Amino acid sequence: MTEPTPAAPRTEQGPHRVVVVDDHAMFRTGVKAEIGRSVAVVGEAADAETAIKVVLATRPDVVLLDVHLPGGGGIEVLRKVHELNPDQKFLALSVSDAAEDVIGVIRGGARGYVTKSINGVELIDAIRRVAEGDAVFSPRLAGFVLDAFSGAIDLAAVDEDLDRLSAREREVLRLIARGYAYKEVARELFISIKTVETHVSSVLRKLQLSNRHQLTRWATDRRLV
Amino acid sequence: MTATESDRPALPPAPRELHRGLDLGADPDVAAATGLAPAHPTVPDAASEPASPRATRISEGAVLGGVCTGLARHLGWPLMVVRIGFVGLALAQFAGVIAYGALWLLLPPETGERAPGLESAGRAGMRDVSRPRRRADWGMLTALVALGTGLLWIVQTSGLGLRPQIFWPVALACAGAALVWRQADTSQQKQWRAEAGGRAWLVPFVARGGWPAMVRVIVGLGLVGTAFGIVIAQQDQIAQLREVMAMATLALAGLAVVLAPYLYRSRTALNEARSAKVRADARADMAAHLHDSVLQTLALIQRQAEDPKAVQQLARRQERELRGWLYGEELVETTLKVALTAAAAEVEDERGVPVELVMVGDTDMSDASKALVRAAREAMVNAAKHSGADKIDVYAEITDDLVEVFVRDRGAGFDPSSVAEDRMGVAGSIMDRMTRHGGTATVRSQPGEGTEVRLEITR
């Protein structure tokens, strides 16, 4: 986001506070073991209802949110928590990789999406980015977004601002889809990492706010082709 | 795939079940022959699916029966064009109404077949299954109704249409029939039928559908009745008995048309129940197959616990297979996506290096894209063999006139100006292959920075 985030100085105050929401106890334990040294896991939950309570009570920097969750899925948690605390930041984790789930949870308000096979170092980095107010795009998510924003655009329905990616945003996304880290994207395009982050955040905003009906239909439609 | 099996001394022979599941991915004929549901996203499901998708009625966003929405999606036309077409046809002696009714009967409703993992997550309330609400486009609707009425009026007053004595009864009867039909086509129909004791034709009359449903049925029947009344009132002279008889026949035909959906539907329901059983059986078989493969892999992992590389490879392979089956999209035809996915999976299995494939767009296979896939596969093998990277990223983008594939690793890299011969050989063969088909291949590498191969071909 372009606006300065109040959470930024917290890095100085200590590790980021994280809540892990996943219905598999084994996965929660594994994640805690992997990231526990670098971040403070202040709570965990196994279903949507508990997650909403825990997140609202602890107000962590970042919530690691499983997409598939008993009690309405990750979307339900996003919806209920954002009603009461619109600033809560979520990083979605999923094993499914199904386009509709990924796009759905991002449009629901998550600030990033990573697959569960992500390693500990990358996960900690993703948590830091989300905590600092940036967006985290995996190559797959970048691919989905490029797919969703490409193709036949219903010209009458295009809202110039929200329904199109700028050439630069497209370039950044393509590099991410090719497996480039933000640092490498910045070097490739001769821009600063901060600028890369701004572009990605702007794409995230478009993804969340765009009313392009193709975007919502896109995920379901592509299964039928 | 079997030829490469011997290249892997670190790994014991794969368990039978697992092995078969993976082989299916490479050989669609085997899949067809064994009649198994796809265990892998790359299996073209040619055995059970017809080549061209059937048109279906789509209830989501439907105004009446979803016929227009379904046709529009099937034909790839804009929805409004199809709708206006039907209204236009309706003006021509009601041909549109008849066609719409026939299609309503004949087109099967869309069935939301999904990957089993997504389906079960949806059933368990673990993911959001609510559909976005349809935005009512009242402006457009009003305009269309006004336009339609206007056109109808012009046709009628210009003397080209039906005589008013016939026009009004027919219009009323059609409106009535449509109202009753609409009733028969709701999602609650199955429940209602159960309440009606299996007598499908009773459904709209006895089932509880709330007052809107009752009003709809009463108004519908009222309209049909009024239509009869008007006809009979017009024909009260005995001299016109023949016409009265003809009208009565028409009325009976109308009644038959009204009842036809119920008869047809009860038959369809029976057929659906049968095929549902077949599907359930197939699912059970698949579940058993999966359990076997997963359990086998777990056993193997325990035995191989000392060799982290082998364990990782086993886990990765099992994960891919399971993920593909649970959440994968069905790739029914032979497209570039299928071919690249298969190539990436093969390299992953042979070399034990994870290959992350991201694709934007898709295209049918041609000679050029076959060459592209082979070149991409070589680039992947190359990266897996020489780079030492723990992951290979493959990105393919298909635009209107261009297909691009990037194969990237974050491994050792090399200095392209002082290449070792073997690398040059592989790079050369990739380049040759691409140039022969009018494409290009560029290799970008730096020591310590990894390598990226870019393949490009015009469509």
Mean residue pLDDT of chain A: 80
User: Largest beta sheet of chain A: what is the strand line-up?
Assistant: 2-1-3-4-5-6
**Gap from first CA to last CA of chain A:** 35 Å
The main sheet of chain B orders its strands as 1-2-3-5-4
Shape of chain A: globular
Shape of chain B: elongated
Separate helix tally of chain B: 17
Largest interface pair: A-B, 37 and 33 residues
Spans of chain A of 5+ residues with little confidence (pLDDT < 50)?
1-11, 152-158
Distance between the termini of chain B: 30 Å
Structure class of chain A: alpha/beta
Instruction: Give the biggest sheet of chain A.
Output: 6 strands, parallel
Q: How helical, in percent, are the residues of chain B? A: 55-70%
Task: Sum this structure up briefly.
With 225 residues, chain A is of the alpha/beta class. Chain A contains eleven helices and six strands. Helices cover 51% and strands 12% of the residues of chain A.
Q: Would you give an account of this structure?
A:
The complex is a heterodimer of chains A (225) and B (459). Chain A is of the alpha/beta class and 225 residues long. Helix content of chain A is 51%, strand content 12%. Chain A contains eleven helices and six strands. Chain A has a six-stranded parallel sheet, sandwiched between helices. In chain A, helix 7 runs antiparallel to helix 8 and helix 9 crosses helix 10. Chain A is globular. The termini of chain A are far apart. The relative contact order of chain A is 0.12. Chain B has 459 residues and is an alpha+beta fold. Chain B has a five-stranded mixed sheet. In chain B, strand 4 and strand 5 form a beta hairpin. In chain B, helix 2 packs across helix 3, helix 5 runs parallel beside helix 8 and helix 9 packs antiparallel against helix 12. The longest helix of chain B is centred in the middle third of the chain and has 63 residues. Chain B starts with a helix and ends with a strand. Classes of the chains: A alpha/beta (225), B alpha+beta (459).
